[in-house]
Amino acid sequence: MTDNNYIRGGALLARALKEKGVDHAFTLAGGFCNPALEGFMECQMPVVNCPHEQVAGHLADGHTRITRKPSVCLVGPEGFANAVPAMLEAWGERSPVIFVTGSSTLKRQGAGGFKEIDDVAIAAPLTKYSIQITDGERISEFVDRAWRAATTGYPGPVHLSLPVDIMFSSFPEDAGRQERPFDRTAQPLPRAWPDPNRLDKILSIVRSAKRLVLIGGHGIWWSGGEDALAQAGTKLQIPIFNVPYHTKMLSEDCKAYMGLADFHQYHPSKPAIQEADVVLMVGCRLDNQMNFGNPPFIKPESTLICVNGSHEELEYNFGADEQLLSDPSAFLNALCDLDQTWSTWLDLQRTRRAEWVQHWSDHIAAETERDEAHGHLMHPLQLALDVQAGMNNGDWLVFDGGNTHFWNEIATNIAAARGLTLGGIMHPGNYSLLGVGVSFALAAKNVNPDKTVVLVTGDGAFLSGGLSIEACFQENIPIVVVVDNNGGLDCISQQQERLFANGQHYATDFRDIPFHTMFEGLGGYGELVTKRSELADALERAIASGKTACLNVKCRGVISPIVAATSDKRDKASIE
């Protein structure tokens, strides 16, 4: 070590993150973070400057979900408060984002320092690991600890707080590197291998099943096990369902993939799951989406098996009849060794799916015919179907909102049955946080620059996070935004009309907002669409423009099946 080879703490942080393999950082540049930004610049880390810290967090989350590799959200003390919603969204999807706060001075901690906030305590319940670095010599060590916490076991976001005096102070560039681990690059993740005796018991139960259903969840995605899932479903002819509110793991061309395990958004999942004698959940949590494993979602006479890759996942699944600690791919590969199939049972589910698609196709055709005959605005499901009809195989679809989200979920199943194979689908996660759509679409386009990325967003969702559209213009990353504009928070107003004694809604309406001219003013492309007959050509023009574009589509409010099912009694206080 030489006496003159010193760098700032922020540069140490940047170098440690670069060494781990982080390839993107997202920020709203602030004075507290400048040494880290200088470090990112020196090590040629791409940094996206965002109009708001929440946007930076959502962009980091979106990038991480697609690449399955941690990215960084860098914010200042007050910016940390703005980024908390993004931390919540990442926590719900177990997205291993590294949130870094350039925090108030360590020297005067507790004395009312400039912008002092207890960021570590605030972040603790929303992350797997939250800590303040109090010794600049240990910056690289704590980056290593945070990375390991974020990526091992059940992944999730982490938080590092680096006080501004340490951020600006100088340290030897090899500070803390005299101790193990000497190699602080990203290492292969540890995997749980199944206990042979437990594995044999689980496989024995599976062999005896007459009607087997497999539900895949987050654990498969984050461990990279989707190929093994597709192979198991295809080889053994097992109907596979996806947990709701999660990135789709299987391409629609996988014949075993049936859609969401959601009785309201995909009705055929109900008889499949309730008639199954064995329900095999791999990488799932028995949370509210799975009704905690209880009836009526899964019947008492069914055998519920949970296979998870970490102890922390299994702790949530104590209600399962049988549990197995195993890396998802290891289990799915063992499953593939079974010499039997459930082809008749799978054929039944495929028939039910086809009937469901035909039912909805007939239903929306009749609705659209009536709308056009009476001069009504477009049905939101028709909008979703027409948008996907204008997309190509390999394109990316993002949707955001309340009813807009739910109608687009239904549309993806119908469009897939009609032959569309999207490159990827993204949407809000377990917490249903509105306003993530633009950030996720930007992230998808950034990772897939040769593909068209379309966001279908409710007007309320766009108002929640639409300012993030500036990052698309700033970074020259063009996306197409289709606003399902029904003039208010339609999902909430419909609940209110079923809950309130007078049958009315309150505080949920918007004025007539010209979203398309907003895009034009920013230098993008915009069109107002008031009739279905205008939509296809308008979408084609928006895509061909090569600009960040907006189609402001006037639609009528139509209650979605899931909102109808969960708000059909006035004494219900909320969606349960």
Question: What do these coordinates show?
Answer:
This protein is α/β, with parallel strands linked by helices and 576 residues long. The chain has 23 helices and 20 strands. It starts with 5 loop residues before the first strand and ends in a 10-residue tail after the last helix. Helix 6 (139-151) links the parallel strand 6 and strand 7. The strands form four sheets. It has a six-stranded parallel β-sheet, sandwiched between helices. Strands 11-10-9-12-13-14 form a six-stranded parallel β-sheet, with helices on both faces. The protein has three domains: 6-172, Rossmann fold, CATH 3.40.50.970; 196-349, Rossmann fold (3-Layer(aba) Sandwich), CATH 3.40.50.1220; 377-566, Thiamin diphosphate (ThDP)-binding fold, Pyr/PP domains (Rossmann fold), CATH 3.40.50.970. The model is unreliable at 570-576 (pLDDT under 50).
